[in-house]
Amino acid sequence: MQVYLDNNATTRVAPEVLDAMLPWFRERWGNPSSLHALGAEAARALAEARERTATALGADATQVVFTSGGTEANNLALQGAARALRRRGDHAVTTAVEHPSVLEVFRALEAEGLRVTYVPVAADGTLDADAFVEAVGPQTIVASLMHAQNETGAVFPVEAIAARAKARRKELFVHVDGVQALGKLPPPGEVIDAYTVSAHKVHGPKGAGALRLGRRARVAALLHGGGQERGLRSGTEALPAWVGLGVAALRAHETRRAFASRAQALGSRLRTGIEAAGGVVNSPPNALPSTLNASFPGLPAEPLLHALEARGVFVSTGSACASRKGKRSPVLRAMGLPDERVDSALRFSLSRETTAEEVEAAVGALAEAVAELRARVGRC
């Protein structure tokens, strides 16, 4: 049996998503901007995809800007807002555990003169809301934080923080990276100015994402050209991918409560198995039940990952965007965990396709793999 528990990295495309996409590659290939019948047909499909995505995000279709994925959406929100609002201030606030597509944007903006405060997290990965809000000052123009952390599953109280932060700075632009939250948490309300999602985290295609913009939010375009996506994202529309996003996002939204209930049970069983195998759970109590980060002190993560792979179980050592760089997890380091915990950490992440049988198989494989590697270490 193959057990895939790396769903925070990417998910398998759902059959209904693929079925919705395929006609737009071969039978209905028109450009949505064209004036003839094929173009009009494509434009209707694009509008329907936007409506579906908007429904999933609790928004109006006019608020949805399609992108090539979460990274582009984060860049559009943060670079776009920082440049649009630069005359009003020179400071931004974020957390120390954001995705690289947020942290690297802020580092680039620092090179342009923006001052950035990186708010730390606690040892369990939770965010001190008071510390974040207090970092907002009279010159703060942008604040950005995750809805759900991609490595630990920690959930941040984004709406409460945004409301308090805006009480301190009325003109503050608040961005939330919701890539790991879609289909797992309710979409936040209008107090959030920009909300990012990505299709391939919810059984949609890679190369498709969206940014939900508040009705009064101002961002400067990054891509200039034909004026597509309300002038904020020029370029011929990636219709098959965005059709897939619409179907996947709406499906994730409609199944959210059912998945939450199943994930609670499956995550609890997985946690029990991890602890029985000598693992130490790094995810906080309030984490999404579908994400479990755990360390196995004394066992380097990569050999354990491959020992699980040999048994048909696929997990990760952290964020897929950072794991191939061979560096220690910046998220776990920001939590202040000792190197032994950081170096032995694995991430297990579920999707709505994960079954109880697969979790039981993973628990059994984990016990075998840990025992095998500890025996090897003992012989050294």
Key attributes of the depicted protein:
Aspartate Aminotransferase, domain 2, 14 helices, Aspartate Aminotransferase, domain 1, alpha/beta, 2 domains, globular, 3-stranded antiparallel beta sheet, 380 residues
Sum this structure up briefly.
This protein has about 375 residues and is of the alpha/beta class.
Explain what the structure shows:
The chain is α/β, with parallel strands linked by helices. The protein has 2 domains: 3-11 and 255-371, Aspartate Aminotransferase, domain 1 (Alpha-Beta Complex), CATH 3.90.1150; 15-254, Type I PLP-dependent aspartate aminotransferase-like (Major domain) (Aspartate Aminotransferase, domain 2, 3-Layer(aba) Sandwich), CATH 3.40.640.10. Helices cover 42% and strands 14% of the residues. The protein contains 14 helices and 12 strands. Strands 2-8-7-6-5-3-4 form a 7-stranded mixed β-sheet, with helices on both faces. The protein has a 3-stranded antiparallel β-sheet with strand order 9-10-12. It has a two-stranded parallel ribbon with strand order 1-11. β5 (140-146), α7 (158-168) and β6 (173-177) form a beta-alpha-beta unit. α4 runs parallel beside α5, α9 (256-276) packs parallel to α14 and α10 crosses α14 (356-379). It is globular and about 70 Å long. The mean pLDDT is 95.
